[in-house]
Amino acid sequence: MYSAIQDVVGSADTIRSPALREIVVDTLQPGPRYARVPIELSLDEAWMAKHNLVDCRSATRTLSRMIEARGYRVRECVGWLAGPVASEHAWLEVEDDDGAWKSIDIAFHVLAQLLLPDQVKSDVFLGSKPDRLLRSECPLDSPLVEHVDCVNEFSCRTVATARLS
Q1: CA angle at residue 97 from 89 to 8, to 5 degrees?
Q2: Which end of the chain has fewer surrounding CB within 10 Å, N or C?
């Protein structure tokens, strides 16, 4: 069994670049629906767009390409969202006009608008980083955990495919 202790720190910040903010706002129109889908579908941009769906990997990949095309440096991040139950998550970090690396998390934005529409500011995930993200070295197109085998229907073995970074 693998265990680790990792300190995580969130940050409250905002994207300064008008060009970056415009890209994100354009991506959110006309309001994609959040859905957890297999990685293969998630990274099929045409399929996700056709069905007006977004998940953390698809949003990260789409924004990464759009922002890089404008000349900005980006990092596609994959890791875990720590909470009562840990979940795989992906988000984007971009070097803003002020030289600082900032987080952009479209999936959190879409979920927050769905679950807490009257409580969450529309741009809270455009620059700020939640304190529950554990970044790994896993590339965007690979799973964090892979199924290995099952002893029976209640006991399966999985292996982590990436280390924390």
Answers
A1: 35
A2: N
